């Protein structure tokens, strides 16, 4: 009765009480009760950003013949960087009948272990069996099958699968979240927002972040993802004030966080934003922990590639070719095992050539479109915009700007199509509709379009042959004309105005 109550409390979001009860049950004489208590305590620990503690709990428990417990322990061991223990746990003997839930749990554990050294297609096929089955775990776990499959898909560049899996999980929770477990509701919503953010759908991503933040105070894992997602949206919107606000909030959470395998995406985003702010030294310890964790796992290609891509961007922003080199080399080395790594390696080389004023239209077009195909539409748009700035050839510059607009327009159309079903009832949204009567001058529209591509004032000025100060004046007039109370609101209103509605 006590373990069932602790499970129910954890799923309902009362992790403090659930953790206290499970701690009291760790000394139980009943092996089954003790194993359940470990699973609950470890799940709460992961929720609070302590994968190391979760792994320690399962080590203390030792092998236990229950597939749900062994699946949970595999998740915790892998998150903490103990590949050997994860393999042992996933292959342990399990008592009980081979129910659909047991098969799904086994597939999840085996898929996670496959992610260490097998191709992405093999890994995701096995992991997918955990979400295609009717998975009713009947208790809390360190992470959900939907979240883990989505994370693997994001790391493998399969944004279509990531969006499909996590969208189903969000919809299964109901439009008001009442059908989803509180324990995982914010987690799922933030992952959906992350998929949209990478694809350049910033307003929809912001709405998902707002939905996740609208309930109780977020636990540490969700708080890290929320702050990193907000940072990512602000950076892509060119809102430097918001970047600083959310970056520092994320760093505060990170100071109390035990870096794990499933937190590398937010860490990578904070690294890039930190490089832009010249604050990377604040992340040195967390980055060292991340690289050490990957080394202990044998530097698995699937989980390493996005962090190396972040390293390329951080090196570029820091104007340090030497810092870019090792990450570019790592992506090139992984290209034989990962088409995603190959696309990123090619894009990285193209980006460096663009910054050196060597703009090849076909090369940039191929690289930018490749990034978009792997769900990194915003990165592809930014590469095309950068190429437009770096070339002295006016025709090439116009072609690159048109490429950037085309990529952004594709993302914007998708955003309009998916925003309505994803929005929860009563959830706050960051999209402010612009008054239909508002008209921008031709010059203001040009400035607005480039602003939405993420260009700073100096680069917009270079493109339009005006000074950065003049750009600033245009932006101020646009804000007054729209009646926006903040830069963030202005950007949201501009997206609403300039997004194709057909």
UniProtKB/TrEMBL annotation:
Compositional bias annotation for Polar residues: 428-439
Gene Ontology terms describing biological process: regulation of DNA-templated transcription
PROSITE patterns: HTH_LUXR_1, HTH_LUXR_2
Alphabetical UniProt keywords: DNA-binding, Transcription, Transcription regulation
InterPro entries: Sig_transdc_resp-reg_C-effctor (IPR016032), Tscrpt_reg_LuxR_C (IPR000792), WH-like_DNA-bd_sf (IPR036388)
Pfam family, one: GerE
Region (Disordered): 419-442
GO molecular function, one term: DNA binding
Coiled coil: none
Domain (HTH luxR-type): residue spans on this chain: 433-498
NCBIfam families according to UniProt: reg_ATPase_IniR
PANTHER family xrefs: DNA-BINDING TRANSCRIPTIONAL ACTIVATOR DEVR_DOSR
Protein name (database record): Response regulator containing a CheY-like receiver domain and an HTH DNA-binding domain protein
